[in-house]
Target: DMT family transporter
Amino acid sequence: MNIKFLLLLILAMVSWGISWPIAKMIAGLVPVPVLVFWRFLATFLSVIPILYGLRLPIRLNTGKDYWNVLIGGIIYTLYNQFFFLGLKNGLPGAGGVLVTTLNPIVTFFIVFLVQKKSISKRQVLGLFFGFLGGLVILQVWKISVDYLLLSGNLFFLLCSFVWATLSLNSQKTGKSMSPITYSFYVYGIGSILELLFCWNDPSFWKVWEFGASFWFAIFYLTVISTTFGTTVYFYAATRLGSEIASSFIFIVPLSAYLSSYLILDEVIQIPVIIGGALAMLAVYLINSKHKKKEPMPG
Model:
C-alpha cells in the first residue's frame, strides 16, 4: 500500500473526527435543511478549482453514471440530515463512536450479501475489535437502553446505515469517473435538493448575521472535512474497495473524543484511550490480508 496515500487517508479520518464537535457548535443555530444547504453549496464551489486545476472531466459518459451520482447525492443529503439532527440532541463524541464503529460492520455485511465476497477470520476478528473498541470508548456499561434510544442516538444509528450505502455507491463510480468529479455532482445535487426545502425559510439568509466562529465552522466542515476528507475517502473506496476503506473509519472515534475534549471540554477517560487502541488494532487486522494479496500500485 502506498505510504503517502495511507497517511492521507488517516489524516482524512482525523479531520472527520474533529468535524463532530465543530458541527455540534452550529447544529442548533438554524434549521437543519438551511445548514446543510450552505454546507453543500460551499463544498460544491470549493471543488470547482480542484477540478479545473487537475483538468478533470466533468462530463458523464453513460446513463448509469447519471443514475449513480443522483443516488449518491440523495444518500449524502440524507446522511447530513441525520448527522445534524443527531447533533442537536446527542453528544458529538457518542455520535462519532456509534456511527464510525457500526459503519464498517454494516458495510462488510452488505458486501457479503450483495457482492458475495468472503470475509476472512482475520477480518471478522478485526471487526470485533473495532466494535468492542467503540463500546469501550462509549462506556456502554454506564448507559441504559433508554439512553441509547434517545432521538439523537437514533439519528446516529441511521447515519451508519446510510453511509454504508454511500460507500458502495462511490465504489461503483470508480471505473468511470474521478472521485473528485463524483464529489462535484454529489454536492451539487445535494445543494439543489436542500434548496427545495429551505429557500423560503425565514432563517435562510440569517447565516450572514453570524460571527466568525460560525463561518470558521462552515469552512472546516466544507474545505477540510468534506472537500479533503470525503474526497480522499471516496478515492480510497475506488482503490481499496468500500469494505476496506470503511475500516479506516475506526480511527475517527478517538479523534472525535479528543477533539471534543479540546473544543467542547468533554471529559476524556482511560476507556477512551483503551477503546481507541482497540480500534487501531481493528484497522490493522482488516487491512493486513488486503495488503498481502492486493498491494496498491506505487
Q: What stands out?
A: The mean pLDDT is 83. The chain has one domain: 3-287.
